[in-house]
Design brief:
heterodimer, A: 265 residues, mainly alpha, ABC transporter involved in vitamin B12 uptake, BtuC, 12 helices, B: 288 residues, alpha/beta, Rossmann fold, six-stranded mixed beta sheet, three-stranded antiparallel beta sheet
Chain lengths: 265, 288
């Protein structure tokens, strides 16, 4: 007999992996891994704000992720300070601010570890519905802007010359990504979410010939990582979030070895 | 007179304290070929990017015909290995097309063999051809080429220019081209704009060649070398608009080009038929 919480963990985890796959591919192509990291760090501030204002913590996380994406989108328009520096500043100051704000939350014992590394086994039906709703918005948006966004990724110059609204697309993509990260933190946590985005996409790269293949492959690798991670956690009693990331990394290593073998032949 | 496709008025732009564009005005009308020449660092690419709206000027304005279709071939396209992208997928980047259609345009530029290759594995010349093939699918009103022969060996350069000329005839579009291959460019162009942060001089190739500012920018020897070429070209052009050198390869796409040749055959009354029908030649850089 499989316990209910395990079913919820599997459904939520696989759902999240499918959302993260295509986004992860774009993050890898657009070299935005650090951007994802920064958004995740800022989510902790959302937890604190949620608790202080009495808002749902999940909505608080999504809201701060969206706000950070907006700040960053405009912060990057200046060129005096490099965008990696802007990212680093925002990431760590929002993280610090989040920790400080959490100290002001009285009477609630906040399980920081659950936010840092995720707590997939504590997933509720409410979480799953939120993820389903958010996922429809995120994936729907991505499909809607797929072709122009890909053109922009291949060459911003070609895209702009051919009347693709480059700036608007960049902004929408950043906001959708913020949404995805806000949704994902519950499962793998602030510190590991970037891994769930980029590692499956990197594994899929070995086998893909087109962008679309890589995006779908990333979703499959992600789902496999979630299932392996949960199984690992169930049988060996390891923390679930890190187990998922370890599984993803393991799949990457296996894929690269398989690929090397195929090339040699 | 029809309104220009793109018009820049009084464009001025500085990067830091360095002024890259100084009160530049330039317009491109339907069907026109404009070649932008000038020394390295003259701001040619910046001017084109400003005209296309990729770069905002500090002052001045760019007026673009509403709904203008532009085909842009950048100086070089570095496709990251991280992004898996076949040539076929690249051709349909901003506009969908069937595989047949993709094959057809690739054949036209002499690159049909790369349709399933990864973009990141192409040589410089192949990448340029593929980008030109993409513009054939786009059917733009304005084709913008930024040094289209960069990274292509000398023998391939003349071939690429011939290809561009052919594409231009097929699409019947305006062309804005940046080039410093003076020898090859001038003859094919309607208007040459000699540019060094401002428009030094412009006009038909003959006028520009005689212009003192042009001669001082490029040196008398270079300037005269062009003279020789223009002459050679005039001669060639009398023979046929499609003259190409002898082609050692056998092309599977001869049939298509034959049709093409016949359609336009009447236009080239002086042309020996086998020349007018000559398929696009594959050159050294694609035959690795």
């Amino acid at each position: 007999m499989i316990d209910d919480f395990l079913v919820r963990a599997i459904v939520g985890g696989v759902l999240l992996a499918c959302i993260c796959g295509p986004f992860g591919a774009f993050i890898v192509w657009r070299r935005m891994a650090f951007f994802g990291d920064m958004l995740a760090h800022s989510a902790l501030l959302g937890v604190a704000l949620g608790l202080l204002i009495g808002l749902d913590v999940r909505l608080g996380m999504i809201a701060t992720c969206l706000a950070s994406a907006l700040i960053l989108a405009f912060g990057q328009r200046q060129s005096k300070i490099g965008s990696d520096t802007v990212l680093g500043m925002l990431a760590h100051s929002t993280l610090a601010l989040g920790m400080v704000a959490l100290a002001f939350v009285q009477g609630v014992a906040v399980d920081i570890m659950a936010y840092l590394f995720g707590d997939i086994l504590a997933i509720t039906m409410g979480d799953i519905w939120l993820m389903l709703g958010g996922g429809v918005v995120a994936i729907g948006g991505l499909i809607w802007m797929w072709r122009p966004l890909l053109a922009l990724t291949v060459s911003p110059e070609i895209a702009a010359a051919e009347s693709i609204p480059v700036e608007r697309l960049r902004l929408i993509f950043m906001l959708l990504m913020a949404l995805v990260i806000g949704l994902a933190i519950k499962i793998v946590g602030v510190l590991l979410i970037t891994a769930l985005l980029i590692v499956p996409a990197a594994s899929a790269r070995f086998f893909a010939r087109t962008p679309e293949q890589m995006a779908i492959g990333a979703a499959l690798f992600g789902a496999a990582s979630v299932l392996t991670g949960i199984a690992l956690s169930w049988h060996v009693d390891t923390p679930a979030g890190p187990s998922i990331v370890i599984s993803a990394a393991g799949l990457f290593v296996i894929s690269s070895i398989v690929m090397m073998g195929l090339r040699r032949r | 007179m029809t309104a220009p496709l793109i018009e820049g008025r009084g464009l001025t732009l500085s990067f830091g304290s360095e002024r890259v564009l100084d009160q530049v005005s330039l317009s491109i009308r339907a069907g026109e070929i404009i070649t932008l020449i000038g020394p390295n660092g003259a701001g040619k690419s910046t001017l084109v990017k400003t005209l296309l709206g990729l770069q905002k000027p500090d002052s001045g304005e760019v007026i673009r015909k509403p709904g203008l279709r532009v085909g842009y071939v950048p100086q070089k396209l570095a496709i990251d290995q991280v992004l898996p992208l076949t040539v076929k997928r690249f051709l349909t980047l901003t506009r969908s097309a069937t595989r047949n259609h993709c094959e057809k345009v690739l054949t036209q530029v002499g690159a049909s063999h790369v349709i399933d290759a990864q973009m990141s594995s192409l040589s410089g010349g192949e990448a340029q051809r593929v980008m030109l093939a993409r513009t054939l699918l786009l059917r733009p009103e304005l084709l913008v080429l930024d040094e289209p022969t960069q990274g292509v060996d000398v023998s391939g350069q003349a071939e690429l220019y011939r290809l561009i000329d052919e594409i231009r005839h097929e699409l019947d579009c305006a062309v804005l081209m940046i080039s410093h291959d003076l020898h090859l460019v001038m003859a094919k162009t309607d208007q040459v704009v000699c540019f060094n942060r401002h428009v030094c001089c412009s006009g038909i190739p003959e006028t520009v060649r005689q212009h003192p500012e042009y001669r001082s920018l490029f040196g008398v020897r270079e300037a005269d070398a062009i003279g020789i070429y223009t002459h050679e070209h005039d001669h060639e052009h009398d023979l046929s608009g499609h003259v190409v050198g002898g082609c050692g390869h056998d092309h599977s796409h001869d049939h298509h080009n034959h049709n093409h040749g016949h359609n336009h055959g009447q236009g080239h009354s002086h042309a020996p038929h086998n020349h007018a029908d000559a398929p696009i030649r594959q050159e050294a850089d694609t035959a690795k």
